[in-house]
Prior knowledge:
The structure is a single chain. The protein has helices at residues 42-55, 60-76, 133-141, 197-209, 259-268; strands at 5-10, 13-16, 28-31, 34-35, 38-40, 82-83, 86-92, 95-102, 111-116, 155-159, 165-168, 172-177, 180-183, 212-215, 227-232, 236-245, 249-250, 271-273. The chain is of the alpha+beta class. It folds into two domains: 5-102, Aminotransferase class 4, branched-chain amino acid transferase, N-terminal domain (D-amino Acid Aminotransferase, Chain A, domain 1); 111-268, D-amino Acid Aminotransferase, subunit A, domain 2 (D-amino Acid Aminotransferase, Chain A, domain 2, Alpha-Beta Barrel). The strands form four sheets. Strands 9, 10, 11, 12, 13, 14, 15, 16 and 17 form a nine-stranded mixed beta sheet that branches. Strands 2-1-8-7-3 form a five-stranded antiparallel beta sheet, with helices on one face. The chain has a two-stranded antiparallel ribbon with strand order 4-6. A hairpin with a 3-residue loop joins β15 (227-232) and β16 (236-245). α1 packs antiparallel against α2. 32% of the residues are buried.
Amino acid sequence: MLAEEALRWVEGEFINYDSAAHEGDPLVADSFRLEDGRAVRLDLHRDRFLDSCAAMGLNVEELDDGARFWKDAIFRLPRSGSWFPRIQVQRAGTGLQWTLLIRPAPGLTSTIRILSHLGADPRTVPAIKGPDLSALHRLRSGLGPDRTDTDRIDDLVLLTNDLQVIESTTCAIVWWEDSVLCVPPSEPAEFSRIRSVTEAAVLELAQLTGARVRESKSLPDDLRGREVWLLNSLHGIRQVEVWLDARVGEIEVQPEPGRFETWQQNYRSLQAAIGVPDK
């Protein structure tokens, strides 16, 4: 597999550039797992990217450029191998810089170990993926690289001021209350979070299978004894294996046998070809 490739889109063409010299967070970014030219709900990723560009103030001409850039970026992606591309736009002087990072995807994991974040919320634009990527990365970096497997933590759960669950630094979070699939509320503003494509796909599966869905406010300790999943486009659905919280200690979760495997298989079945690379 090739190493990471960084490409800048200039007048409809891609040119290589040094991503290490690229300073600052993107205005908007989007990423998805690409397996042998197949991805889950690429249409929703495109919609989120362009909607986010509009929300960040791009004008009509810039949005038209964004739509062309997205199409060209998808055309440029490899059709074999496992990849985790990032499609992004950044302010550059008085203009915009459209870039594509073609990155090898890490191996899939099915479980995750998490910690409640009890400090200040580092996000400045919680509903947009891009502006807070560095801040969230720094927060995760504080977990330390030298942990052993038995005490490692993979991600942090962000909470409202009154300690209600919002999302993690990289994932949407959902849980089961008996047979009901629960998600954090979409309102009020304190629950503002990135519009997760993976969550949307899982909710579509819930509708197809007749599973009930409910918005629910929950403290981390309210989820003791529940089955809890973290969702993102890199790994799909992952079961929470360990949840630690400095206030209440370990929050023991209780998966229902076979449920995760069924839903993960159904989620993977949503992969569809991103198209033959032709314009």
